[in-house]
Amino acid sequence: MDPNTSPPCPGTITIRRNPPRRARATPKVTPQSFDLPDIPPFPNDDVWPAQTPLNPSTSLPKPENENLKVFLRIRPLSSSPIQAPRAKTKSAWPQNPAKKNAAASGAKISKSKTSSACITVNDSQSVTLSTPVSWHEPKRIKSETYGGFSYVFSSDSSQFKVYERMVKPLVEEFLRGKCGMLAALGPSGSGKTHTVFGTPRDPGMVPLALRHIFKDAEPHAKQASRTFYMSIFEICSERGKAEKLFDLLSDGGEISMQQSTVKGLKEVPISNTEQAESLMAQAALKRATAMTNTNSQSSRSQCIINIRDVPPKCKGVVNPKSNSAVLTIIDLAGAEREKRTGNQGARLLESNFINNTLMVFGLCLRSLLEHQKNRKKPLQKHFQSSMLTRYLRDYLEGKKRMSLILTAKPGEEDYLDTSYLLRQASPYMQIKYNEVEPSNIVPKKRHYQASSIMDNTKLSPLSESLKRIRLVSEHTEQNDKKSVEERQNFTEALRKLDASSSVSFKSECDRQLRSERSHIIMQNFAKVIWNVLKQYNSKLKVAEIEIESLKENIGNEKKKYLELETQLNELKADCICCKGGQIKNDPEDFSSVGLAQPHNSEQEVEYSISGFLLSCMKISESSFLVRVEQSDEEGPMLSTSCTRLDSEKSDREALSLSKPEHRSALDVDDGSKILIIMYVFGLVVHSFWESFDAQSLSEAKLDQSDEQPTIGTSCTQLDATESDRKISTYLLKAEDHNALEVETSHKIPSESFDAHSLSEAGLDQSDEESTLGTSCAQLDSEKSDRENSISFSKPEDHNALEVEAVRKIPSELLVSSSSTEDDNLDPLSPNDDHLVGGDPRGKIGVDISRKPPKPKRTLMPSSSMLSRDLSTFDLCDESEKLKGNRGTRKLATHEPQRSNGSISLLRMLKDRRSNLHR
Ligand SMILES: Nc1ncnc2c1ncn2[C@@H]1O[C@H](COP(=O)(O)OP(=O)(O)OP(=O)(O)O)[C@@H](O)[C@H]1O
Predict the structure, then answer these.
(1) Domain covering 63-78+113-447 assigned CATH 3.90.1300.10 in the classification
(2) 126, 365, 485, 713: most buried, per Cβ within 10 A?
(3) What's the complex ipTM?
C-alpha cells in the first residue's frame, strides 16, 4: 500500500448512485467459429441526408450518445458570511426554548462553516456529496457519489468553459438547423441566472451563444439573407394561483397560451450581438425578481429565451424545407425551502408556485424515463399541469433533444438542497432520444405560431390572402408562372409586414380588449362587493340600535334593582326595629308629611286615622298586604296575604304581643306578626261590632295616655243587623308606622243606619301600664248617600298597598267605632295555639312566603269559632263594669246576646291582667 495515500476511513459508506456505465468489453469472437453473413454498414447517408451546412467546415456530427445531457455546475463557495435570516415575524405560540437554543447554535455553526464544502468533484463526470460533520453520528460518515454527468463544472469553471462544453454544441446544431433546449435547474441562489445571463463583465450562456451565432452566421448572413428572431417571455404566478405569461420584449406584456403555442408573443428580429444584448438587458429589467433570504435578487418566474432562425429565402421563394430551428434557453426559478428562504405571504405563494412547476417538470421527465424503460407504462400527461411543461411538451415527451444544467451550492448548509437536486435530477440522464424528429424538417407550428408573422396573417385581410396563396403555392408546381409571381408577392408582403409595426398593433388591440374586459369584470365585482357592504352596514345599524335599547333596559333594570335594594334595606331596618321590641311613635314621621300633632281627642282620632293611613303606605312599601274580607252570605272570609321581601327569614314566625312595660302596644318580630296580630285583633273588634246592635251603638271616646302607646282602630259603617252591611275596620299602629290593614266590608244600606243609635264609645283603662285606644272616625254625618273614598296608592311601586273605604252613608249616619282592649290582656298571643296554632291551619290565612300574595283565604275553623264566639261577646257587662269603675264613659243600653266563647275570652283576658297586676 502506498504510504502516502491515507487508508479509507472505516466508517465511511460510499453510495454510488448511477455509476458511469462502462461498456463491457466485447468478447472477441473468432470469425472462423461462426459462419456469419456480411452485415452491411449502417446506412448513415440514407438516414441522415446530406444537408447544406451553413458552415461547410463544420462536419456533421454523427448521432453519438443520444441520452439527455445533464451537466452539473458547482458555484463557488460564498466568501461573505451567509446572510443571516431576516428577523422572522414573531410567532404567537410559545417556542420551545431547547429548540430556540438549538436553532441559535445551528445558526452559529452554519456561519462558522462557510468555508467547508459538502460536495467535491471526483472527475469530470462525478461528484461526492458528504453530509455535514455536525449532522452525522460520531463513527458513521456518510457520503454519496453521483456520477454519469455529461460534464461537471467545478466552482472555478469560467463561463466560457461552460459555454464551450455545454452550449456550443447546441448552438452549432442550431445553426445546422436542429432545435435545442437548455434548462438551468437548481435551488435558489445556486447560479442559474448567473449561468444563463451572466453579467456584462462575465456574460452567460445566452450572450455567448448570440455572439457565436452572429460570429458564425455573419459571413453567410448577407449571402443567405439569414435572419434571427429573439423572443423572451416569463411564466409567473398571480398571487400563487393562476399562471400568467408576460412578454419581456414588448410593452404590453401579457400574452396567452393555447395548447403549446404562445399567442401574441413578440419576436424581435436581431441582426447583431449588440442589439440582442440590449434586448436581453431590457428583458432582465422587466423580469420578476425579489429579495429572499437565499438570494438578494431571486428570480420569481420561469424565463424562456427563444432564438429562432427564419428560413432562408432562395431568390424570394420560401423553401419549406429550410432550417427553422429554435434554440431555447430556460432560466427556471429556483426550488425553495420555506425554512431557508423565510418567505411569507406573497413570496410564499410564489415559492409554492415555483416548486409546483418544478415538480411537474420533474414528473414529466420521470414519466418519460419510466416509459422508455418499460414501454408498457403509458406516458403520463403531466405536461398539462403547468404552462411551462405544456410549452416544452415536445422536449418532455422525448421528441426533441434537450440538455439540463444543474447548478449546485457547495456549502454545508446547502447540503439538503444539493442532495435533493442530485437525487432528483441525476436519473434524467438515462433518458434517450431515439425518436427525435429530424431537425431539418420544419417543426410543428405550435412553438412558433406565437411569432408575429403568424399572428399578423390572421389580423389583416392581406395576410389572410397571402396565407391562402402560400398554402396554394405549397401544392402547385413551380412551373406555374402565376404561382411564382404570387410567391414573390407573398415574400414581399412578408417583408413589409415584418418591417411594419402591425405586430405591435395586433398585440396592442389584444391588450386593450383584455384590459377592457378585466375592467368590466372588476367593475361588476366592485358592485357586488358594494352591495354586500351595504347590507352589512344596514345590519350593523340595526344591531347598534338593538344594543342601545338593551343598554337602556339594563340601566332601567339597574335602577329598579337599586330601588328594590333600598326598599329591602328599609324593610330590614324596620324589621330590626320591630325585633328590638320598641315600636316608636315618631310624630316627626307624620309631621313630615304634613300632619299636625293632635291637640284634642277629635284631633287624636284624626291623627290616628292619618297615622294609620301613613302606616298603610309604609306597609305598602314594605310589601305587606293584608286584607280581611267578610261576606255575610258565605260566612266570614279572611284573606291575608303577606309578601315578604326579606329572604333571610322564610319561616313563619309566631305572633307575639308586646310586654306591658314596653311603650309600644305590640311587640312584633316582623311585619308578618303584626299582620297576624292585627288580623286577630280585627276579628275581635269585628266580633264586638257583631255583638252590637245598630241601635245600641254609642259613641265612645277613649282617653289615651300620653305615656302609653296607642292602638288606633278605625271602624266605619257598622251595622250588625243588616246582612248586606259593609264594615271596614282599620287597625293601625301608629307608633312604628308599620300599619296593618284589616278590612271587613259589609254593604250597609243607608236606611239601616240610625243616627241616633250611633254613639261614641270609649274605654278607659284603669291600669296605667297600657291603654288600648279605639279611635272612631266620624267621617260624615251631614250629607246623605255620599261616597267617601280614601285611597292610597303608590303607582310606581308594585307592592303598594291600597287602602280604600267606600261607603254609602246616609245623612243621618254617624260613623263611630269603638273598641278598646288592653294589650296586656290580649289573649291572642302568638304562642296561643288554641287561637292560631292549634290547627296547622291556625296561622290561617297568613301566607308568609315570597310568592305573590293570594287575595283571599277562607277562615279556618278555629278562627271561625273564635269569630263566632266573639260575635256573641257581651260587652255590655264589661262596659257596665268599666262604666261603674271609671264612670267616664257610657255604653249602649242595648245588650245583645253574648256567646260563651266571647265571655270566656274576656275572662281570660281579665285573668291575665290580674296576674300581671300581681
Ligand atoms: N459561478 C458563479 N460564479 C460567481 N458568482 C456566482 C456563480 N454562480 C452564482 N453566483 C452568484 O450567486 C448569486 C446568486 O446567483 P443567481 O442569481 O444566478 O442564483 P439563481 O440560481 O438564479 O437563484 P434564483 O433561483 O433565486 O433566481 C449571484 O450574485 C451570482 O452572481
Answers:
(1) no
(2) 713
(3) 0.98
